[in-house]
Amino acid sequence: xxxxxxxxxxxxxxxxxxxxxxxxxxxxxxxxxxxxxxxxxxxxxxxxxxxxxxxxxxxxxxxxxxxxxxxxxxxxxxxxxxxxxxxxxxxxxxxxxxxxxxxxxxxxxxxxxxxxxxxxxxxxxxxxxxxxxxxxxxxxxxxxxxxxxxxxxxxxxxxx
Length: 160
Known about the structure:
- Helix 1 (about 5-15) packs antiparallel against helix 2, helix 2 (about 20-30) runs parallel beside helix 7 (about 125-150) and helix 4 (about 50-65) packs across helix 6 (about 110-120).
- It is built from seven helices and no strands.
- By secondary structure, the chain is an all-alpha fold.
- Helix content is about 80%, strand content about 0%.
């Protein structure tokens, strides 16, 4: 059992396509004890929020100051997104982000939760806390499903 599989588990936990649904099962099926692998994958996935915020802020500033087509597109996109989901965000707030990230289904997770919060201009610190809480819950759900052998052929577990 080499460290390569553990590194792959961490990388899968960071990738938007797999996140914890890929990282934790990969570690488990390659013989790693989930007592060690789960916290490692959770920490890796929790790092998505600061990585995503840094990436978005850097490129957004660069694009917004240099490309007029981006300014037009971004402003229209933000207005449309805020109009569509403003009532839900106002109703559920950061608890909604936590729950959205916590559900280990395709298109939910730390990347999407962070991106949505950034687009809506929500507080960075509170968003990171909500995403981290959601990642912990998601990690516990995926670990439970893998341990119990439930959902191995479902959308909860990413096949690799």
